[in-house]
Design brief:
Elements: E1 2-6, E2 9-16, E3 21-25, H1 36-43, E4 47-51, H2 70-83, E5 89-94, H3 96-107, E6 112-118, H4 125-128, H5 140-152, H6 169-180, H7 183-194, E7 210-215, H8 221-230, E8 234-239, H9 246-249, H10 251-267, E9 273-276
Parallel strand pairs: 3-4, 3-5, 5-6, 6-7, 7-8, 8-9
Antiparallel strand pairs: 1-2, 2-4
Helix pairs in contact: 1-10, 2-3
Length: about 280
């Protein structure tokens, strides 16, 4: 576990394993702990870099909310990669982290060997309704529990959120992460989501082989299909029995999808196509 001074903040990160770098960004309200089920299998072949995004986990949370944009998150990652001496990497993220990875790939295409877009969208959430929109409520943490979390944790069997056991690893980890965030860190991240640039019109610019992963009960399946149509060289993987958060709900299928995709990229095999796991 280490910290680095990047882009004006103290950023917390972890590096596991050796090999070609694989850099992953977590979702809104979460932390690098979200990748717990990926650390061992991915680090057996890759130099896995996971980190707490600004305003999350053990990374500094600036009080200036104007410093929270997805472009700033992408710049944080660029400077972290520079700090670690990483020129090119496999770059990916889940949910909000996928938005960061997408922006990184569009801004620094020469540094991305392959792109992983997991449970995410190229759309502006507020404009397209992929997430509850509107001005920030007075209590964002309460709003997340009542409005966002029930949508995030839809499971394959349509279990209502209020009936989900709070001991379920995915639910427990997310709720714990949200409770640990500072109020201004949460508000900053929410601001970044609500005010992000809509990038669907730029998806044709992506030059890296791309993997799109989404759960079969994820509300972001529709925008994931849009990305599938517009990204030139991509593979679409639908994860069965999973809502938002495939890396936690179905880690074996998620890990298989990622590792098989990266194997194909390294071997120079075609990556286009679609599969269900």
């Amino acid at each position: 576990m280490s910290d680095a001074l990047v882009n004006g903040i103290r950023l917390h990160y972890e590096v596991h394993g050796e090999g070609d770098p694989l850099v992953l960004a977590h979702g809104f309200g979460a932390s690098l702990e979200m990748w717990a089920e990926q650390i061992r299998p991915f680090s057996q072949k890759y130099r896995l870099v996971v980190y707490d995004m600004r305003g999350h986990g053990r990374t500094e949370a600036p009080r200036d909310l104007s410093s929270y944009t997805l472009d700033e998150y992408a710049e944080d990652q660029r400077q972290l990669m520079d700090h670690l001496g990483i020129d090119t990497a496999y770059v990916g993220g889940l949910s909000m982290g996928g938005g960061v990875a997408l922006r990184f790939a569009l801004t620094h295409p020469q540094r991305v060997k392959a792109l992983l877009l997991c449970d995410t969208s190229a759309r502006n959430y507020a404009l397209h309704g992929d997430r509850p929109a509107g001005a920030q409520p007075s209590s964002l943490r309460r709003f997340l529990f009542r409005n966002v979390a029930p949508e995030v944790f839809v499971l394959a069997r349509h279990v209502p959120f209020e009936r989900l056991p709070r001991t379920h690893p995915v639910v427990k980890s997310y709720l714990q992460s949200v409770r640990q965030q500072t109020a201004h860190g949460l508000r900053g991240g929410w601001r970044a989501l609500m005010e992000q640039e809509d990038l669907e019109g730029r998806l044709g610019e992506i030059t890296a082989p791309t993997l799109i992963i989404v759960g079969d009960r994820d509300p972001l399946q529709s925008p994931s299909r849009v990305m599938q149509r517009l990204i030139p060289e991509c593979r679409f993987v639908l994860i069965k029995d999973s809502g938002h958060g495939t890396a936690g709900y179905q880690p074996e299928a998620f890990n298989r999808a990622v590792l098989e995709f990266l194997d194909d990229v390294e071997a120079g095999r075609p990556v286009e196509g679609e599969m269900t796991l």
